[in-house]
Amino acid sequence: MTTTRFRARGLAAVSAATLLLGLAACGGSDDSDDSSEGPTQSSDIEFTGDPVTVMTWSVYDTDTLNAKAVLDIAQGAVVDINNHGGLNGHELKLITCNDGADPNKAAACARQAVDEDVAAVVGGFTTNGDVMLPILEKAGIPWFGPAGLSAAELSSENSFMLTGGVLGLAQLGARAAGDGCKTVAAVGYDLPSAGEISQLVDVGLANAGAEASHVIKIPPTTTDFSSIAQETVDYDCAVISTPPQAFVGIAAAAKSLGAKTRYYMVPGALTSFVTDNGGDAVEGTVTLSSFPPADDPIWDDAKKVVGDLADDPNGGWSGTVMQNTWVAYRTFATLLEKTEDFSAAGVKGTLDATTAVDTGGFTPPFSFATEFPAAGLNRVFNYMAMYIKVEGGKLVREGDELVDLRGALAPAS
So which residues are the signal peptide here (predicted)? Predict the structure, then answer.
């Protein structure tokens, strides 16, 4: 399968598009209580080796991005790993950092990782990956399980992604075409990335034989979405790249106008906030995910360890960056369970040589040894995803089959 057509039409858009994807993944305010108790590490565990230190960073206490629960998940995962004997007898130590949605603070987090001689950065969430990864690269520190929201995360040899990243945008375009959408709107905030996201969606539309999307830009200060809804009602379908809160506003206003538009949400943006607040207006909305929905029994252990995260403003366990951090820690522990060299170089060497990445059933196995054959997306290793949709007011998996995201990158035969 060739990726030439995708490269020409879409890869130039990746860097700008990922900022808006980050805004869609985690929006809203964070009213969580810093004093909440987390899981307790057992004092009965005896470790046989020196501690291994890792870092997880996230964003909170800002006006736009607040994902403190990511750090709660990391802390819970570390305690759980240690309560099961640690990493090959080594206690896992966690350092957390808030990048504050500020490139300078983000760089400080990365420099702290270097100063603390961490073995790896694991999971986490940031829109400043392009600032942080070069610092990690220089020190040889791998980032295991980044969210894939920056060009560096998608391309750096120190990045080990577990998800399909922006490949899902092309697949959503192909899905819309396959659902019979003759006219498609690409709806997002009026940022440079709005047009770029539509280009990625258009790859899937074009390869499925459909017309390109029409970009509808939302002024960033918008609180009344009636005028945006008025624009979307003229289209069969709309690919929405906004935070969940804005999507609910658009869908509710469109429903009041009698709209029949089908909605497709960018990966990471369709959370339980939408189902809890959108009602009939969001019924049938479709997205893609690398992981099963939050009510799947596979998440039961995570919920027992960390809690149900019911009060999290970003949708708790239904949020992709939350899920990704838990899966990253569980997979990190599995892949390194027989490792002896826990230096950053040793960890990276182990990961580079891993040809069967076992995520414990959260994803099919895949390989870190073979990069994706397209510049700018070369660190996408897991091509398989599932459709998630709103059905009966809940997020449910659509069917049992996984979709290969590479299929949307080549013209249909």
Answer: 1-27
- Cα–Cα distance for residue pair 117/129, rounded to 1 Å: 19
Q: What is the pLDDT of residue 21?
A: 62
- pTM metric for this prediction: 0.91
What is the 8-class DSSP label of residue 189?
E
Q: If one looks up domain 166-289+385-409 in CATH, what number appears? A: 3.40.50.2300
Please tell me the distance from the alpha carbon of residue 359 to that of residue 332, in angstroms, as a whole number. 9
The single residue listed with the structure tokens 């980050």 is 22
Of residues 286, 213, 225, 215, the one with CA closest to residue 252: 225
Q: Please name which of 36, 120, 49, 115 lies closest in space to residue 82, comparing C-alpha atoms.
A: 49
Q: How are beta strands 384-391 and 286-289 bridged, if at all? A: antiparallel
Contact (Cβ atoms closer than 8 angstroms) between residue 298 and residue 390: no
- 10 Å CB burial of residue 402 (0-12, 13-18, 19+) is middle
C-alpha–C-alpha distance, residues 115 and 263, integer Å: 46
Helix ranges, 2-120 (H):
4-9, 14-25, 69-83, 103-115
Model pLDDT for residues 270-325, shown as the tens digit of each residue: 999 999 999 999 999 999 999 999 999 999 999 999 999 988 888 899 999 999 99
Residues of the chain with CATH 3.40.50.2300: 31-164+294-382, 166-289+385-409
**C-alpha closest to that of 166 among 138, 180, 146:** 146
Rounded to whole angstroms, how far apart are CA atoms 377 and 321?
19
pLDDT band at 36 (very low <50, low <70, confident <90, very high): very low
The CATH H-level (homologous superfamily) assignment of domain 31-164+294-382 is Response regulator (3.40.50.2300)
Q: Please measure the distance between the N-terminal and C-terminal CA atoms of the chain and give it in whole angstroms.
A: 11
Structural element, H or E, at residue 53: strand 49-58
